[in-house]
Amino acid sequence: MLGFCFLTYDEIVREDVWNEYFKNVPDSKYDIFCHPKCLEKIKTQELFKNKIVPNRVHTSWGTFSLIEAQRMLLIHSLKKKEITHFIILSHNTIPVQSFEKLECFLNGKPSIFDDTELNYVGTTHQQNIYDTLLDPDFPVNMFHKQSQWCILSRDDAQYLVDEHDKITRIFIKSRFSDEHTYINYLIHYKKTCPLLNIRLTYIDWYYNDKKGTTPVIFENISDTMMLGFESSNTFFLRKVSETTNCENVKQNISKSI
Fold first, then answer.
1. Is 194 inside a domain boundary?
2. What Rg do the C-alpha atoms of the chain give, in angstroms?
3. Which residues constitute the domain of residue 46?
4. What's this model's pTM, rounded to 2 decimal places?
5. Per-residue pLDDT tens over the stretch 176-233
6. Which residue intervals of the chain are DSSP H helices?
């Protein structure tokens, strides 16, 4: 069983795509958990509105509150003993390959992160973020940066929940905690933890003179992009809008292996 853990502002952007994704999947193979920032704005979504976790926390961008929210998602999803992997997702993410392919791919695998360390070591940004940690037990040149959108094995998810007090003491004041807390704690404190470095969620960036580096909002998803996702083990795409043309995505996620 797979646990889909959504960290959202309010409603899921493309519930229609997710409905197609889960349409032929037995309930025994997955469950959904949602932590919205604005609960009152979730009004119409049949797939998600009954999946809200209790004990939500107030979140703000770039702070440790996002780790607190992810913790609540993990606490409640871990109650399902059958779940083997916990998939962290945003409100504007869609699947681009079938559930069946993802299930087969994850079978027996450890936690998976998009680890950007190779483009990070020795940068000013790395030093600045590292300096916000409180007495870390590892040097700056071993400080990893991750995408927030990762997949955790059951053992690692439980470990992160159990170790939350220790995690808090180190990372509570860190900037952009969601981009380094999990991967660094697992690598440097669990130590025996095997991790895979795969970019499972695709996101594209461009430079905006007013906003700096900004994510692309996809309005069209080409067949060439879809072929690239299949060849690179990319299972999710972020960011989409209500008007994104997702017809080829719907066809692809409905395919059997």
1. yes
2. 18
3. 2-199
4. 0.93
5. 999 999 999 999 999 877 899 999 999 988 777 666 678 889 999 999 999 999 888 9
6. 15-22, 65-77, 99-106, 124-130, 154-162, 164-171, 181-185, 223-231, 247-253
